Amino acid sequence: MRRGIVTLVWVAAALAVVGLWIAARDLTDRPPPSVETAPRQPPRSGLSGDGWTVVRQTSAHYMLVIEVETERVADAGRIAQQLTEPAKDRYTEILVYVFRPGRRGGLPAVRVQWTHRGGYNTTEYAPE
After folding, report:
1. pTM reported for the whole predicted model
2. Alpha-carbon span 126 to 7, nearest angstrom
């Protein structure tokens, strides 16, 4: 009985070593990821559109946060779509915070969240 258990442990250890060797070889044999020749860039601070301006953006870990100032808070969804479209392929989540001019630092008027799974979701914090 004891000999059977020892044999089983040796076989399991050998299979583990072979599995690790195959996994390590698999990782080193992969070609490097392709690089796009002209990647689409996310919006930059100072970018503006019809009545709105990007005042700040931050990104980390496949997430992008954009702060926008506008008098046209009711157009937050349309503004967010204009800003997220060029960046959708680079991020898993994009948050667009819409502030009235001069009111940054407090609660935004609207937050628009975009994710691959959920699409667009709008939250009004301080509507007009």
Report:
1. 0.63
2. 69
